[in-house]
Amino acid sequence: MPATQRPDHRLVRTDDSWLTLPNPANVPVEICAGPEVPIESAAIDELLTVLKTTDTLRALAEATPGLDVEPRIDRVVCTPDFHKGAGIPIGTVLRTVGALIPQAVGNDINCGMRVEATDITVDRLRPHLDTLERRLRHLFFEGGRRIGLTATQREGLLRDGLPGLLDGGVPTDADGAWRQVRPDDTTDLDGRLHATGFPVASASGFRDWITSGGGTSYDSIIGSIGGGNHFAELQYVSAIHDGAAAHAWGLAAGRVVLMVHSGSLSLGHQANATGQDQARAAWPRGVPMPNNRILPMLLDEAGAPRRERYLTAFANAANFAIGNRFFLAMMLRRPRRRGR
Predict the structure, then answer these.
(1) Edge-to-edge strand order for the sheet containing 90-97?
(2) Per-residue pLDDT reduced to its tens digit, 59-73
(3) Residue 172: which residues within 8 A CB-CB, separation 6 or more?
(4) pTM of the complete model
């Protein structure tokens, strides 16, 4: 691969880290990518199609008199992982005024990571990798997870995140991943997580998942890694670049860490579908559906109940993602405990 990529002719480089994309909608578009980063022309094509949503917003405003502000896309910034998606490029961040666009959020709501430091060194772990791999494969892919949840725990998780899940404490008769929960996992959540949850009043949109099985039940969703670039990995610290930060995190060279990367799985898909359904139901008569199939929701008073349904489902999915990463980390702990 050449050291410097020839950029798409439609892009204008402004410095070593940023490019801009002039466009007919006159929306400021910035793409973060150095000269060596390839940028797909197909992603630029897709982004220009997304910007046609400005015409959709104009049509919606004309059909909705009395709006406080003119709905518009105010700015677009594309992150270094920018590439073609399914309607909206991956890595695209839209800042809107007077409207929200569920499809710009997508399905993978609250995709994120959780990392845990261990006291195990990589030299100590290496001789046991084959055995560990078999145990992890059983846990993650061969039905070994066994995460039993009651309806109360499920609803608590979706409404409040980890505090809701752990409100009743760790079940005394729990098995599977629950048995790896330590007392300090249930305290000082705010001090150890960027977000413990996004409280909302309801989780009624996911009633089927909440009540599935009745009593304490098991399913194939909670504790799943998901697809795409999601993972659950054993890693180790190969080098220290910031000694103070490493010390604060309990990290040292050669130390094994557990890292999980996942999102809201099928609940995120359902939340996104809820947003699109609500946008479609609120669509004004006489306004044609856009060719790019991107359906904004105006921030008008009449649409507030429909927006609230979507935003509640969005929070429910985001809370689930936090709980799912919690259990993924507990699952990674299990082989370690057995090996001691």
Answers:
(1) 12-13, 18-20, 29-32, 72-83, 90-97
(2) 999 999 999 999 999
(3) none
(4) 0.91
